[in-house]
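REQUEST FORM: STRUCTURE PREDICTION
Request ID: SP-0412
Submitted by: Lab K.M.
Chain count: 1
Length (residues): 160
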Amino acid sequence: MRSPRSATSNNPLTHFTELINIHSAFHAGAFQQVLDFDTSSFSSSNALPVRVLQLRSKIALGQAKDVSSELASEKTPDLIAVKLLADQEQGKDVLSQAKKLAEQHGQENLNVQLLGGIVLERAGETEEALALLSKHQGSLDACVEFYMRGVDCEANSHTA
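STATUS: Completed
RESULT:
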C-alpha cells in the first residue's frame, strides 16, 4: 500500500492542490486557521508559499513586530517583502526599501510583486504599485488585494 505522500508525489498538480485550503483560509480571513494548519505532509516546494501565508496571517493578527524580529536577518526576497509589510504595519517608512526590492526582484518574483505592491499602494504610490503588479503572470492574488482596497486592477493595469 502506498502512503498518501507517495500517492500524490507523481501528480504534477500536487504543488498547487496542497495549497488550496490554506490559501483559501487566508483569503477568507481565517488567519488563526492558517497558523494552525498542519503542513507537515506538504511537499518541500511549498514550504516558502506556506511560510509567507503564515507570516502574513501573523501580521493580520497584530503580530507584525514578531514577524519583523523573526525575519530580521532574512535574505530571501519573498521573506524580505513580508518583513517590509510587517515593518510598514508598525508605522515604519519602508517605501525606498520596497522600491529597491521591486527593482531587483520584481520582474519574476510573485511575492515581491504582490507584497511590494501592497506596500507601495499603502504608501500612496498606487500607480507604481499597479505597474509592479502588472508584471504578475496570472496571479489572481494581485488583483484581489487591490480590489479589496477599492482599486480596479483591470481598469488601471499597465501592459508591457
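NOTES: DSSP finds eleven helices and no strands in the chain.
Reviewed by: T.R.
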